[in-house]
């Protein structure tokens, strides 16, 4: 079995054929799909998606690119959902310093408050880390959450080692499938075996063979195959390894 640790199955891009997308993932051997939220107004859709499709589990959080639309009262809403719905994690949360029209201070406020909630509910976090690795690590040293996953990791080896020290697994997906992604591929090949997990980020970050088309969780086995080749192990061993790693940090998978 494979676990897709990051897939936005609730996204509008899947509204026309979500049943078929999920069925194809099951046929491909993807037995668990983690569906992270991006804003409080999507929590209900994520809940219904996970209830409808076997193997899907929810994470609730406010994405850094959505904090400009969010209100501080949304943190209380998130708190209620964490208390009542027992999600697998708090997420997708983090920082994104790539986009110019999002206030970094507002991002940091919402990130810090959500880390506090993760600590209060003893939940791991699913991190969005884009050109913000060091600021995120600073927050994680202050708020020692019970681990989590650094989604779509693209930092240095030194930064990767610090995430691992703090109890995190690092997510690898479509970006790793491009031959030009030398740093990501080197990390994927050489990081400690217990630190890596698989993801698609579907419908985003499509692998090389989709030529920028819509990504889906059914692509995970082929992504896993690339990772297995990079690490020079069998696909079966890679599947067992990444499944165990995901389950070790996301309790209840």
Task: Name some characteristics of this structure.
single chain; 253 residues; alpha/beta; TIM Barrel; eight-stranded parallel β-sheet; 8 strands; 16% strand; globular
Give the helix/strand layout.
Layout: E1 2-4, H1 18-27, E2 30-36, H2 43-52, E3 56-60, H3 73-85, E4 89-96, H4 104-120, E5 125-130, H5 133-142, E6 148-151, H6 157-165, E7 168-172, H7 182-190, E8 196-198, H8 220-231, H9 235-249
Parallel strand pairs: 1-2, 2-3, 3-4, 4-5, 5-6, 6-7, 7-8
Verbal overview:
With 253 residues, the protein is an alpha/beta fold. The chain has 9 helices and 8 strands. The protein has helices at 18-27, 43-52, 73-85, 104-120, 133-142, 157-165, 182-190, 220-231, 235-249; strands at 2-4, 30-36, 56-60, 89-96, 125-130, 148-151, 168-172, 196-198. The protein has an 8-stranded parallel beta sheet with strand order 1-2-3-4-5-6-7-8, sandwiched between helices. Strand 4 (89-96), helix 4 (104-120) and strand 5 (125-130) form a beta-alpha-beta unit. Helix 8 packs across helix 9.
Summarize the structure.
The chain is an alpha/beta fold and 253 residues long.
**CATH homologous superfamily assignment:** Metal-dependent hydrolases
The portion of residues assigned to helices is 40-55%
**Mean pLDDT rating:** 97
Report the radius of gyration as a whole number of Å: 17 Å
The total of beta strands comes to 8
Total tally of structural domains: 1
Order of helices and strands: EHEHEHEHEHEHEHEHH
CATH topology: TIM Barrel
> Alpha-carbon distance between the termini?
12 Å
Largest sheet entry:
8 strands, parallel
The residue ranges in which pLDDT falls below 50 over 5 or more consecutive positions are none
How much β-strand is present in the residues? 15-25%
Shape: globular
Query: Please, how many helices?
Result: 9
- Going by CATH, the architecture would be Alpha-Beta Barrel
Strand order of the largest sheet: 1-2-3-4-5-6-7-8
Judged by helices, strands and strand pairing, the structural class is: alpha/beta
The level-1 CATH class: Alpha Beta
């Amino acid at each position: 079995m494979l676990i897709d640790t990051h897939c936005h199955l609730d996204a509008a891009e899947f509204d026309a054929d979500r049943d078929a997308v999920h069925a194809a993932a099951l046929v491909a051997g993807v037995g668990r799909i983690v569906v992270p939220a991006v804003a409080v107004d999507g929590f209900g859709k994520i809940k219904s998606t996970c209830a409808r499709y076997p193997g899907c589990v929810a994470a609730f959080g406010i994405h850094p690119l959505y904090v400009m639309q969010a209100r501080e009262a949304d943190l209380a809403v998130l708190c209620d959902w964490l208390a009542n719905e027992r999600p697998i994690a708090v997420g997708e949360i983090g920082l994104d310093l790539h986009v110019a029209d999002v206030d970094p201070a507002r991002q940091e406020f919402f990130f810090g408050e959500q880390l506090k909630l993760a600590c209060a509910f003893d939940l791991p976090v699913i991190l969005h880390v884009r050109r913000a690795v060091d600021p995120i690590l600073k927050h994680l040293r202050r708020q020692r959450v019970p681990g989590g996953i650094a989604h779509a990791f693209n930092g240095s080896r030194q930064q990767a080692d610090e995430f691992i020290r703090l109890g995190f697994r690092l997510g690898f997906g479509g970006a790793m499938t491009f031959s030009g992604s030398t740093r990501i591929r080197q990390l994927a090949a050489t990081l400690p075996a217990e630190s890596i997990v698989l993801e698609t980020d579907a419908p985003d970050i499509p692998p090389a063979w989709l030529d920028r088309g819509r990504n889906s969780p059914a692509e995970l086995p082929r992504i896993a195959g690339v990772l297995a080749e990079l690490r020079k192990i069998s696909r079966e061993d890679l599947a067992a390894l990444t499944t165990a790693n995901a389950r070790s940090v996301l309790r209840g998978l």
